[in-house]
Amino acid sequence: xxxxxxxxxxxxxxxxxxxxxxxxxxxxxxxxxxxxxxxxxxxxxxxxxxxxxxxxxxxxxxxxxxxxxxxxxxxxxxxxxxxxxxxxxxxxxxxxxxxxxxxxxxxxxxxxxxxxxxxxxxxxxxxxxxxxxxxxxxxxxxxxxxxxxxxxxxxxxxxxxxxxxxxxxxxxxxxxxxxxxxxxxxxxxxxxxxxxxxxxxxxxxxxxxxxxxxxxxxxxxxxxxxxxxxxxxxxxxxxxxxxxxxxxxxxxxxxxxxxxxxxxxxxxxxxxxxxxxxxxxxxxxxxxxxxxxxxxxxxxxxxxxxxxxxxxxxxxxxxxxxxxxxxxxxxxxxxxx
Amino acid sequence: xxxxxxxxxxxxxxxxxxxxxxxxxxxxxxxxxxxxxxxxxxxxxxxxxxxxxxxxxxxxxxxxxxxxxxxxxxxxxxxxxxxxxxxxxxxxxxxxxxxxxxxxxxxxxxxxxxxxxxxxxxxxxxxxxxxxxxxxxxxxxxxxxxxxxxxxxxxxxxxxxxxxxxxxxxxxxxxxxxxxxxxxxxxxxxxxxxxxxxxxxxxxxxxxxxxxxxxxxxxxxxxxxxxxxxxxxxxxxxxxxxxxxxxxxxxxxxxxxxxxxxxxxxxxxxxxxxxxxxxxxxxxxxxxxxxxxxxxxxxxxxxxxxxxxxxxxxxxxxxxxxxxxxxxxxxxxxxxx
Lengths: 337, 337
Description:
Two copies of one chain form a homodimer.
Chain A (H helix, E strand, L loop, with lengths): L5 E7 L2 E13 L5 E5 L5 E2 L6 H4 L1 H5 L2 H4 L4 H7 L7 H13 L17 H9 L12 H13 L13 H14 L9 E3 L5 E3 L1 E2 H13 L4 H17 L1 H4 L5 H9 L4 E5 L3 E6 L4 E7 L4 H15 L4 H11 L2 E3 L5 E7 L6
Antiparallel strand pairs in A: 1-2, 1-12, 2-3, 2-10, 4-7, 5-6, 8-9, 9-10, 11-12
Helix pairs in contact in A: 4-5, 4-7, 4-10, 5-7, 9-10, 12-14, 13-14
């Protein structure tokens, strides 16, 4: 791999303290690259950034409609959430529609990433369950898809399980990749497979996700349904204080953005017909967020008020334990304004 | 700044998922560079990696002796601790020796970084105080130094306060730098100033810290006292599950290692007379730890049993929420074995 280039700087006082390297690509609905920096052809694990594509079987099979899932449930199926009470309760309610409980989830348990929810859970003498796992909405969707399709959900995280094969087929179709045994794959934090896909293919897939172009009317309808759900319920797509929730709350249906572990983002700007994929080389979320913000600023027209509100995503302030501002993060290099 | 070079790789399955760039330098007691990679002359904020040097006024003024501080208190003064009960209690006891309480601390409060201690605190209906701040031992040392020296401790975090001026003088002497108004400075997480110092000067300072060479008998004695304290009480220098504690528990007095925020490490290997300073360019602790481990492996002879035990620092295993091994971290480039 070539040494990557700096795209984000972290300042303390007036001095650059740390730097982040990364790659990003933006393509239009025709598949033409309109912006690129770094290595955009190298396969990367998209991790949770493609949860909206992984939710396709749930929608396209009719399972979501059969169980009466609305915006909140569909947004949660696409989410990496903070484990806040409403997130956990909604995941439980999704499972209940299919006659299942938390026992059906195979994602593992962890304390809520939302600190106040974690402290409240501890204060109440509770302990985390799989419902608090940031992926519980996605997994509840997997279980519901399986149940509606008369597939035994047990072992649904396995690469050879029918659930994962339906997902891999859908993701492969959207991104023009064959996710078979020849593709590099790893095990994700929630135990499902994650397949290495080049950034430019991911961006192409998300241009389709935003436009419905080249995928047929049924899939285009599923894409529109999932985008509408996240635009209507951005809190369910991530949670309190989170970048994805904040951006989609501010910009509504104009931007669908989804983070993944290890510094990945996938996004679409439907009005512009653009698909976006990026990776911070070192895996830092703080940098991936600023990279994403720089691309939003570049391609989505905003009012002055929106620009003012957007500054906290583009140039986040770093504060210390006494609440004193000690630094800032800013786009740099190819992503500098 | 030139684009930095990759020194650490993060694998998921058999594929490199993320990479970290960085710089490192090792110098001997004569100041000769015996290993270097990256940019070792650029000033970096050492942050908490120089807490042992910042503890010099406490020891050299006689304050530590006057208050009867033993290994535990001195190690805590050099620590970035996890906020575990014994850490917080020891910081409180240090303050009590000087007739002060938690109210004297100006570092701010945060929940213990040690997750189980944080959950236990919440479960007991508690809330974090400045004693749980990872820097509370250092700050307790500052307050005790001030009180013993008849300096009003109020405002001791300020750059112009006598406490910080004594510290800057000591750190400047040890690292051959003038930490005056012309030097780039930022505000640290705990509100004290942090001064930008080139990595090679930091390494030179830590070669002196490990050997006592070129600093006079009194300072050499203070260095030896602080090193002995951390070797005897490595738990107080960081805490449960932490790299610094683990390494110093395994290697005893053969390695003094101290991490700082944003991917910095300072260290000395006294038997070899070496001083070490490094920075992961993107600020990631996981990579700075593996960089440090790679230099330990390169320069400190270990028995076969020690090598086996050391593997968890050199090639940490990444596990997911189900406890499944999903990847590893390894040194790369100039730091590869």
